[in-house]
Amino acid sequence: MGSITVAPGTTVLFSSRRLDLCGRRHENLSVVSSSQPSLMPKQRWLYIPETRLKREVLKLDVVGRAADSTSSSPSVASGDRTLIPDDEFTLAKISFGVIGLGLGVSLLSYGFGAYFTILPGTEWSAIMLTYGFPLSIIGMALKYAELKPVPCLSYSDAVKLRESCATPILTQVRNDVTRYRYGDEQHLEEALKRIFQYGLGGGIPRRSAPILQLIREEVLTDGRYCVVLVFEAKALTLSDFEKRQAKFTSFFGPNITAEVGKGESENLYEVRLISNLSTNSVSSTS
């Protein structure tokens, strides 16, 4: 039992019992007037908002996780770690399935409205219906076969080295996984097929193939540019990636060194594609 002074002549007695954030919404606090010590203490109720307590606990949890993730990557340089948003506009970042489906449905809707004289333009209803049907079908097909781009986290220090230190293959990998693709089951499908050898001796089943979740551009402590591929693989272990580290190096080479490691969560694994090019070597070859 402890006490704190809140006003002259008034002492708040509080219990040392731990507050349960999930099941208890307030705690009973006893207020005792110091001017009448011999009388029975008068009970008052002080309400402690649950949302405020949860907000403070959540803030501490987020800070702790950020500190843990920073300390778990000692090879990453502690330079300018400002995230640069990937807001560059290209046609590859537009979903053609959404465009085709939206345009086709719009033509069909207006065409039917004009055909039944609900909307003006009866003479154009046949043309709108004629083009609306195939556009809707093509849009639905593209939407069904659509593979969405993965998030790309680019730090400012890595963006400065991208043009001078990124190999053509690293640039192609970044461009391919950050745009919409159609007909592929997953990103980097051809690379993963050769590295993990689906269905072959010493390989893995296709259903156990790792799935790319995001990529990062960062700079290591030695100043080398690096692209990190973060995979989710529930049926694989870290040893499955370590055994194929040399294959990652040879497939994404030349001038590439691949390193594999464990991700932040249980089923995440990281493959670092480190560029061996430097600004000095690029300037000397040119």
From TrEMBL:
Organism (species): Arabidopsis thaliana
Transmembrane segments: 94-118
Entry's Gene Ontology cellular component terms: chloroplast; chloroplast envelope; chloroplast thylakoid; chloroplast thylakoid membrane; plastid; thylakoid membrane
Top-rank taxon, per record: Eukaryota
UniProt cross-references to InterPro entries, sorted A to Z: DUF2854
Pfam families (UniProt xref): DUF2854
Protein name from the UniProt record: Acclimation of photosynthesis to environment
Gene Ontology molecular function terms on file: mRNA binding
Key words of the record: Membrane, Transmembrane, Transmembrane helix
